[in-house]
């Protein structure tokens, strides 16, 4: 008897080009329409074809946003998928595959699943994906109606015959799934949630994109680099509807400089890249610093150094963004922990960039951007678009020294003044200068805004028992895995603290760590945020839970790492 009452993890594995992603996308949409909580995350090999890709789909009784290592159902489309995922196949894993895909392999729970045969029977081998979704729905005991409706819409443009054949393929798979469930004692009793119809099923790229559009972004310039390319393609699709200029630059140096040029002209500008691409932008970030030009930089992190693992995940670019650009000047670094938070934080990023005439970084990663989950519309926050551009007069001075350290920002053509910008050190009007006194004041002016930015900085969110003696710190995409691990551990002596603003830190942060045993969880090799906490807030970190394999943390490994806390 295989009974699943609270959650189930289903993994689809196959070669690039076999449609693993297509199967998962269809299943997730159908499950969501049927009222279930779903979360999906994907791992890609860096191949156009071949290799071995997999997508995990979790169906849960409550909302989850984390990867699990264990597999309940594995649907393998080729023999390599079984080999690739071997380490995750446990004694209770049910493996659904063609017989010849598992020959010579020791698998305790194999179910011969004639996916290709059913596809051929339905009329074409390309229907294998449809068959696979049908099999899973049959196993889960979920009505085929929502999938039939999905297929009718998906293939409407290809004509009634293609729709009918796809539905036949789905029915063949579904019948097999139902029979298999009955014959093998497979019972799934996860209750559908009363999912409001206004829930959005989106991926991380879409969340960042929605935030960017809502912020009134009018210009993006980027050179494609995974996983940061998703924002570029999202905005390209929305360019006409929201009047956004989309520039696919020839390289990352051009991208940042084009964004600064657009910002100089008054646009709300963003660039999207990954660590290797951002490394080329550093001189441009320094130019933004000296010219006090607002710009938002989205870094979809992946493992380095160099090309590293181009399709995997890591949180390794915090130090890069913290120290990017020569010289000392202000910046802000944000890192959303959920899709709803990403929508809000990206809007906040643009407003902060405009108000403080600075660079604001938004750090995500491959795991975050390629994951899929639902967001309730009530969770989506819409911030007012704050513009801080003044009409210039004839005496306008772009870098006028003020008590606040912020000069009125004018743009060319709006008013009577001349708006000068210079990469050299400059005086108040923007003319090049080597006057040591003015230099001292300008350096102070550019750094002075950090004090205000830190007082306004977002505080981390605490979850778990407030009286707990141990605090586990996470940032960015690790929020979901830490929340779930702590909930499943159910210990009263450990709580979680999630940072969505990494720099500058709010002065109140220091007090949150008093008399606490501090553990930091992050997807990098050295503990970059642990170092930042120590340096900026004097926090002593007793344990670092680190991972830099290219994989996200799983719920199981976080639980295991926290078992020792308090018992050392």
Keyphrases for this structure?
alpha/beta; 4 domains; Pyruvate-ferredoxin Oxidoreductase, domain 3
Describe this structure in words.
The chain has four domains: 2-188, Pyruvate-ferredoxin Oxidoreductase, domain 3, CATH 3.40.920; 200-379, Rossmann fold; 389-456, no CATH class; 461-563, Rossmann fold (3-Layer(aba) Sandwich), CATH 3.40.50.920. The protein has helices spanning 20-33, 79-84, 115-122, 128-140, 145-154, 160-183, 204-214, 229-242, 252-264, 275-291, 318-323, 339-356, 366-370, 436-456, 479-489, 509-512, 528-537, 555-563, and strands at 2-4, 7-16, 37-43, 50-60, 73-76, 94-97, 110-112, 186-188, 199-203, 219-222, 245-248, 269-273, 295-301, 331-334, 359-365, 372-376, 461-463, 470-475, 494-499, 501-503, 517-522, 541-546. Helix 3 crosses helix 4 and helix 7 (204-214) runs parallel beside helix 12. Helix 15 (479-489) links the parallel strand 18 and strand 19. The chain has 18 helices and 22 strands. Helix content is 38%, strand content 20%. It has 568 residues and is α/β, with parallel strands linked by helices. The strands form four sheets. Strands 7-6-5-2-4-3-16-9 form an eight-stranded mixed sheet. Strands 11-10-12-13-15-14-20 form a seven-stranded mixed sheet, sandwiched between helices. The protein is globular, with a radius of gyration of 26 Å.
């Amino acid at each position: 008897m295989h009974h699943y009452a609270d959650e189930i993890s289903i993994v689809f594995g196959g070669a690039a080009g076999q449609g693993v992603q297509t199967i998962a996308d269809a299943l997730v949409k159908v499950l969501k329409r049927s009222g279930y909580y779903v979360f999906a995350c994907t791992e890609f090999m860096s191949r156009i074809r071949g290799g071995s890709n997999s997508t995990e789909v979790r169906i849960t009784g409550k909302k989850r946003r984390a990867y699990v290592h264990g597999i309940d159902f594995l649907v393998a489309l080729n023999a390599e998928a079984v080999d690739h995922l071997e380490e995750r196949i446990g004694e209770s894993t049910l493996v659904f595959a063609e017989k010849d895909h598992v020959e010579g392999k020791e698998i305790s729970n194999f179910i011969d699943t004639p996916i290709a045969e059913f596809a051929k029977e339905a009329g074409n081998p390309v229907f294998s994906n449809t068959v696979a979704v049908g099999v899973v729905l049959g196993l889960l005991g979920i009505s085929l109606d929502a999938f039939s409706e999905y297929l009718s819409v998906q293939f409407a443009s290809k004509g009634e015959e293609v729709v009918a054949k796809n539905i036949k393929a789905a029915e063949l798979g579904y019948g097999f799934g139902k029979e298999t469930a009955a014959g093998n004692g497979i019972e799934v009793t996860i209750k559908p949630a009363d999912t409001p119809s206004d829930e959005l099923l989106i991926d991380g790229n879409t969340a960042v994109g929605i935030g960017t559009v809502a912020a009134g972004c009018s210009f993006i310039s980027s050179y494609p680099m995974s996983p940061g390319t998703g924002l570029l393609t999202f905005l390209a699709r929305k360019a006409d509807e929201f009047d956004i200029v989309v520039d696919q630059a020839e390289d990352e140096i051009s991208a940042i400089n084009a964004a600064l040029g657009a910002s100089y002209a008054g646009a709300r500008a963003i660039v999207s890249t990954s660590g290797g691409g951002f490394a080329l932008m550093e001189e441009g970030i320094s130019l933004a610093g000296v010219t006090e030009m607002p710009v938002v930089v989205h870094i979809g992190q992946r493992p380095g150094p160099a090309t590293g693992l181009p399709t995997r995940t890591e949180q390794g670019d915090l130090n890069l963004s913290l120290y990017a650009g020569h010289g000392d000047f202000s910046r802000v670094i944000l890192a959303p922990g959920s899709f709803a938070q990403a929508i809000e934080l990206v809007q906040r990023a643009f407003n902060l960039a405009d108000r403080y005439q600075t660079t604001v970084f938004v750090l995500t990663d491959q795991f975050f951007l390629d994951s899929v989950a639902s967001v309730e519309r009530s969770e989506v926050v819409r911030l007012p678009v704050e513009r801080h551009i003044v009409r210039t007069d004839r005496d306008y001075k772009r870098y006028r020294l003020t008590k606040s350290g912020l000069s009125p920002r004018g743009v060319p053509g709006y008013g009577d003044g001349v708006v000068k910008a210079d990469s050299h050190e400059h005086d108040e009007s923007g003319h090049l200068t080597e006057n040591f006194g003015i230099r001292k004041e300008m350096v102070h002016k550019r750094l002075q805004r950090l004090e205000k930015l830190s007082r306004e900085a977002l505080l981390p969110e605490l979850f778990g028992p407030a009286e707990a003696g141990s605090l586990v710190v996470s940032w960015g995409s690790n929020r979901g895995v830490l929340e779930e691990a702590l909930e499943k551990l159910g210990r009263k002596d450990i709580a979680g603290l999630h940072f969505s603003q990494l720099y500058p830190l709010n002065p109140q942060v220091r007090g949150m760590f008093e008399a606490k045993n501090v553990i930091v969880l992050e997807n990098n090799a050295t503990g970059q945020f642990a170092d930042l906490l120590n340096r900026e807030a004097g926090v002593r970190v007793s344990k670092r839970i680190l991972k830099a394999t290219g994989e996200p943390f799983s719920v199981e490994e976080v639980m295991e790492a926290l078992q020792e806390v308090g018992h050392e």
